[in-house]
Amino acid sequence: MFMGALILIVSTGLFFFYLQVLCQKILRRQFAQEFSQSIVNANRLEFPSVRKSIEDLGAPIEYPRLALTLKCDFLALTYLLKNAANVNQRYSYEERLLIVYFKVVFATLVSRHLLKLREAPAALKLTAILEYFANVVGERVNTVRFGNLTASDYLLNL
Questions:
Q1: Contacts (Cβ under 8 Å, ≥6 apart) of 50
Q2: Is 77 left (phi over 0), alpha (psi -120 to 50) or beta?
Q3: What is the pLDDT of residue 30?
Q4: Cα 125 from Cα 109, distance rounded (Å)
């Protein structure tokens, strides 16, 4: 019984370690240009201001606002990933993996809040994932040209 539990705990730990390493590798992808700002502006996303307030101010995090902001941005970006300039209208393998990773990190954010531990590192990881999603959406929209419409104009018309 003890060995079974030990194997389960070690296997679970190794799975989460593998997930984290794989997702960090995906997040290091370099884009040809910064596409996220046009997506942020077009959809009024809040994650850049969350990141800036955490990095610059170092002030205590207002948890209810932080959680709501990150969750709303996540829902908006996952919708756009699936529907904006996506011919297959489904997520790629990397996107599905990052969605799972976002949910795991968000759960750690909730547990850090409940245990009164530092929430900033988890919040910064979440904003990095959201920025990656915004860059992917922007890159897709940028590759599909609709006359002289910009990415922001296209997304406003969705």
A1: 66, 69, 70, 123, 127
A2: alpha
A3: 84
A4: 10
Cβ within 8 Å of residue 122, ≥6 positions away: 105, 106, 108, 109, 112
Residue 89, amino acid: Q
Q: Where are the alpha helices (DSSP H) in 28-92?
A: 36-43, 47-52, 63-83
Q: How far is CA 121 from the centre of its chain?
A: 14
Residue 150 has pLDDT above 70, yes or no: no
CA distance 69 to 156: 20
Four-residue CA torsion sign, 55, 57, 60, 61: negative
- The tens digit of pLDDT for each residue in 1-29 reads 889 999 999 999 998 899 899 999 999 98
Distance from C-alpha of 139 to C-alpha of 77, rounded to nearest angstrom? 13
Q: Where are the domains of the chain?
A: 2-156
Task: Say if residues 50 and 123 touch (Cβ distance below 8 Å).
Answer: yes
Tokens 């750690």 correspond to what residue? 108
Identify the pLDDT of residue 29: 86
At which residue do the structure tokens 């979440």 appear?
Answer: 126
Tokens of 154: 């296209």
